[in-house]
Amino acid sequence: MKQRLTWVAAIAVLAVSSVAMANFRQGDKEFTLSGSGSNDKKFEAGGVNVNASIGYFVTDGFELSVRQSINYADAGDNRDQIWNGSTRLAADYNFDLGRWRPFIGVNGGYVYGDGVNDTWEAAPEGGVKFFVNDTTFLYGQIEYQFFFRDANGADDAFDDGQFVYSIGIGFRF
User: Fold this and answer.
1) Please, what is the end-to-end C-alpha distance for the chain in angstroms?
2) Which domains does the chain have, with CATH numbers?
3) The predicted structure's pLDDT at residue 16
4) Which residue in 22, 24, 48, 49 has the fewest CB atoms around it within 10 Å?
5) What is the C-alpha separation between 55 and 66, in angstroms, rounded?
6) Rounded Cα–Cα distance for residues 95 and 63 (Å)
7) Which residue has the higher pLDDT, 43 or 27?
8) Average pLDDT in the 89-118 region?
9) CA-CA distance, 132 to 22, in Å (whole number)?
10) Residue 9's CB: how many other CB atoms inside 10 A?
11) Helix (H) or strand (E) holding 40
């Protein structure tokens, strides 16, 4: 009986500590980083993508952040190299589910570069953060960017846009 109580107490302590370690507090900051790459089978053409953000928790759940994305593509065979980027401001609410922190919000900013028509964008977004310890988390995010200008330069492109997916790592400090 004593051994069972000891195991129950140990499991309860571990469960409470795993929930407590993932709590954001007002004034916390976070940094996230994600990236991807691709190339053809001969390594003659390819591209890379890097995303980074810095966020500040206004309350225990409400976060404001700045995001930067940079994309580079080289089509190979003496074709043009393409640089694209986006700079966005975001507002998200993080739900407290212990180690799991789903979030939902919006962002807006500017998309620019060689392979896109420079334009403002707005996007609903959502995702989840999973804390692996008290300061480090893995995250996944999806957003749909509505563009304010289409590829031909017209201002009627609000129904045009793109999905943006991110999977990366984040740090709370």
Assistant:
1) 43
2) 2-172 (2.40.160.20)
3) 47
4) 48
5) 6
6) 11
7) 27
8) 94
9) 9
10) 10
11) none
- The amino acid at residue 35 is G
H or E segment and range at residue 111: strand 100-113
Cα separation of 69 and 51, whole Å?
4
What does pLDDT average to over the chain? Answer: 85
Q: Taken in order 109, 113, 118, 121, is the CA torsion positive or negative?
A: negative
Determine if residue 117 is left, alpha or beta; phi over 0 gives left, psi from -120 to 50 gives alpha, anything else beta. beta
Place of tokens 């001969």: 42
Q: Using CA atoms, how far apart are residues 57 and 127, in angstroms rounded to an integer?
A: 17
Q: Using DSSP bridges, classify how beta strands 161-172 and 81-94 pair: parallel, antiparallel or unpaired.
A: unpaired
What span, in angstroms and rounded, lies between the C-alpha atoms of 16 and 21?
9
Report the DSSP beta bridge partners of residue 75.
Answer: none
Q: Which has more confidence, 135 or 37?
A: 135
**Which pair of tokens denotes residue 69?**
């994305």
**Nearest to residue 117, comparing CAs of 67, 156, 163?**
156
